[in-house]
Amino acid sequence: MLGQLSSELKISAEASQVWEIISTLKLAKLVVEEIPDVVTKFDVVEGDGGVGTVLKLYLSPDGPGFSSYSEKFTKVDHEKLVKETEVVEGGVLDIGFTKYLIRFEVIDKGEGSCIWKSTIEYEMKEEFAANASLVSIKPLESIMETVEKWLTNHKA
């Protein structure tokens, strides 16, 4: 079974400013600092924020029912402003998902604004199809809104 969810947010900031945060480890640090009800902490298992980086993310006890998972940065395209991460251990993989990919795209709109598009793509075993209802774009929307607020509050 395949599925996909996506959401877009217009941000009043340069695409390069948004990309500077989401293409690096700054995003994980900002999420932990600003919205600990999503991710309480993270560890860098491997890498420096580029392709191949593996993070272990620890989730809020009020979260989706699992306490942690590991994700790997599989694409960080500085020209197209696209970053992809895949869950490689734990989390949704423990409840029947065989693939869970998150893609962030930044689309420059000029004049100090951009669109941040977040997409979740997943595959799962048919016998676990009921768990597809657990997939939610809401945490990514919270992250996008948090980055937007942070950029607004930290303009030079």
TrEMBL record:
GO terms for molecular function: abscisic acid binding; protein phosphatase inhibitor activity; signaling receptor activity. GO terms for cellular component: cytoplasm; nucleus. Residues 3-153 form the Bet v I/Major latex protein domain. Coiled coil: none annotated. CDD domains: Bet_v1-like (cd07816). Pfam families: Bet_v_1. Keywords: Alkaloid metabolism. One of its GO terms (biological process) is abscisic acid-activated signaling pathway. The keyword Cell division does not apply. The keyword Manganese does not apply. Belongs to the BetVI family. This is Bet v I/Major latex protein. It comes from Dillenia turbinata.
